[in-house]
Write a structure and sequence with these properties.
The structure is a single chain. The protein has 22 residues and is mainly alpha-helical. It is built from one helix and no strands.
């Protein structure tokens, strides 16, 4: 079920990137 963690990591990375972009 590591695919779930990969998707979760991508979601978190996207939020962090979006926060830094603001």
């Amino acid at each position: 079920m590591y695919i779930y963690w990969i998707l979760l990591g991508l979601a978190i990375a996207t939020e962090i990137t979006g926060t830094l972009s603001m």
